């Protein structure tokens, strides 16, 4: 099966990049 | 405004005048003051010293201070512009400014490049991308065979590394991101538009006249 996604699309899904959580007080 | 004294602000090392910070960023003075309410809360969650250390940053992101995470650590390191292992209020506001919906694409692209350039060489190398990909797999339920990981890296570098020298430079990144705008989604926090609504208590601590805010 050919790979359809590039690495950065996958990496950018890491919860570590989800800064929204900073605002949940 | 300014109905309550906020002398405590001087206890925050690196505290900067909201009017000055607003002049340097996309934020209004009121928004900077609302961000200070958020900053106070995060910076006092483990050690009440007016600075955010990595433990407090991770705690705010994951509600779990023990959780090591390559990506959150990378963001922390870029916020920590003075490389002291802590984020002061000025660092915090200037870094969040990049994530504001109104900040230029150029600033967002530059920041995202630095995010992925783990060893700060000015290039995003295949090994760095592989390291991040493996970290992502380690933190998720996703399982990929080694050959699939290599195939993803091949495809990525075929598309992004236009001169095929094995690394992605800034101009290649700018072109790649323009073709894949979804990659910049993590660089915008719509929440920052409503920061004064989220932290309305800033009004009680404001040091600035309404006319200036």
TrEMBL record, chain B:
This protein's record includes keyword Iron: no
- Residue limits of the EF-hand domain? 67-102, 104-139, 148-183
Specify the superkingdom. Eukaryota
Span of the signal peptide? none
Compartment(s) where it occurs, according to its Swiss-Prot or TrEMBL record: Membrane
Recite the UniProt keywords alphabetically. Calcium, Membrane, Metal-binding, Repeat
Q: Which family does it belong to?
A: Belongs to the calcineurin regulatory subunit family.
Relate the protein's function as given in its record: Acts as a calcium sensor. CBL proteins interact with CIPK serine-threonine protein kinases. Binding of a CBL protein to the regulatory NAF domain of a CIPK protein lead to the activation of the kinase in a calcium-dependent manner.
What is the annotated quaternary arrangement, including any partners?
A: Homodimer. Interacts with CIPK.
Q: What is this protein called?
A: Calcineurin B-like protein
């Amino acid at each position: 099966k050919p790979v359809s996604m590039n690495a950065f699309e996958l990496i950018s899904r890491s919860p570590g990049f989800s800064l929204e959580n900073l605002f949940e007080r | 405004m300014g109905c309550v004294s906020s002398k405590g602000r001087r206890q925050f090392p690196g505290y900067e005048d909201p009017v000055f910070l607003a002049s340097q960023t996309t934020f209004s003075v009121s928004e900077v003051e609302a961000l200070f309410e958020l900053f106070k809360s995060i910076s006092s969650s483990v050690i009440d010293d007016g600075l955010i250390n990595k433990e407090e940053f991770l705690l705010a992101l994951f509600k779990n201070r023990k959780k090591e995470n390559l990506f959150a650590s990378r963001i922390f390191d870029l916020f920590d512009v003075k490389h002291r292992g802590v984020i002061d209020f000025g660092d915090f506001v200037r870094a969040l400014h990049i994530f504001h919906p109104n900040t230029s694409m150029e600033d967002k692209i530059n920041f995202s490049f630095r995010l992925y350039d783990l060893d700060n060489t000015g290039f995003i190398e295949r090994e760095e991308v592989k390291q991040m990909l493996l970290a992502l797999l380690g933190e998720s339920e996703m399982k990929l065979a080694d050959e699939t990981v290599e195939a993803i890296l091949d495809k990525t570098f075929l598309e992004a590394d236009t001169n095929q020298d094995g690394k992605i430079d800034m101009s290649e990144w700018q072109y790649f991101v323009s073709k894949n705008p979804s990659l910049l989604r993590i660089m915008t926090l719509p929440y920052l538009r409503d920061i004064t609504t989220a932290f309305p208590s800033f009004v009680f601590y404001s040091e600035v006249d309404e006319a200036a805010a």
